[in-house]
């Protein structure tokens, strides 16, 4: 084996290690985005796993110097949307889940819980929920989020603004007015 071949193999190994470390560092962000998209922790974990596998398989198509976070979120979003389209006509009802969802929980006078926020997010149209998750929770700029979703920046800004307004309406207690100032 020549020195040149040995150097190339060492460089490839270093690149794979760097890619792997960068991908692992994104796991918490991917989990948060996936939970927002899916609403169910088990399904979100499956989505993250599939995204990581697809990203690893396609690692040669990643352009160093670009945002790996945006790249992986695009992979995740596309896989999620493909699954939605594929499963659109299928309905599965788990009897245990149905039993727990049909039970009314006691109302308590507390602030908004994460579960309340998740339920409110679930009521939003997919495009608005996705925009809020990317810009609000994911920390992407409007430009990055628009690129991930493949829409113009104005469309992304509109989806975020409308999503925030709709969330405010859903979460606002009946008869009370809560001050709202868009970010």
Automatic annotation (TrEMBL):
Give the RNA polymerase sigma-70 region domain ranges. Answer: 26-89
Q: Would the keyword Transcription regulation turn up in this protein's UniProt record?
A: yes
UniProt KW keywords: Sigma factor, Transcription, Transcription regulation
The record ties this protein, via Pfam families, to: Sigma70_r2 (PF04542), Sigma70_r4_2 (PF08281)
The GO terms describing molecular function are:
DNA binding; sigma factor activity
Which GO BP annotation is one of this protein's?
A: DNA-templated transcription initiation
Domain of life, per lineage: Bacteria
Domain RNA polymerase sigma factor 70 region 4 type residue range list: 116-167
Against PANTHER family, the record matches this protein to: RNA POLYMERASE ECF-TYPE SIGMA FACTO (PTHR43133), RNA POLYMERASE SIGMA FACTOR RFAY-RELATED (PTHR43133:SF25)
Q: What name has this protein been given in UniProt?
A: RNA polymerase sigma-70 factor (ECF subfamily)
User: Source species, please?
Assistant: Novosphingobium kunmingense
Q: What is the lineage of its organism?
A: Bacteria, Pseudomonadati, Pseudomonadota, Alphaproteobacteria, Sphingomonadales
């Amino acid at each position: 084996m020549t020195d040149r071949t040995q150097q190339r193999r060492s460089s490839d190994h270093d690149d794979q290690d760097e890619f792997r470390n960068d991908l692992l560092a994104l796991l918490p962000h991917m989990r948060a985005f996936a939970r927002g998209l899916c609403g169910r922790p088990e399904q979100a974990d499956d989505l993250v796993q599939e995204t990581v596998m697809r990203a690893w398989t396609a690692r040669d198509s990643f352009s160093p110097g670009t945002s790996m976070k945006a790249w992986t979120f695009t992979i995740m979003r596309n896989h999620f949307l493909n699954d939605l389209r594929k499963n659109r006509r299928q309905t599965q009802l788990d009897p245990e889940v149905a039993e727990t969802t049909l039970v009314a929980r006691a109302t308590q006078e507390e602030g908004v819980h994460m579960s309340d926020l998740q339920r409110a997010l679930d009521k939003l149209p997919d495009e608005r929920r996705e925009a809020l998750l990317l810009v609000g929770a994911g920390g992407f700029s409007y430009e990055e989020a628009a690129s991930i979703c493949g829409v113009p920046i104005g469309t992304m800004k509109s989806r975020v603004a409308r999503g925030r307004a709709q969330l405010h309406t859903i979460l606002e207690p009946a008869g009370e007015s809560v001050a709202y100032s868009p970010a």
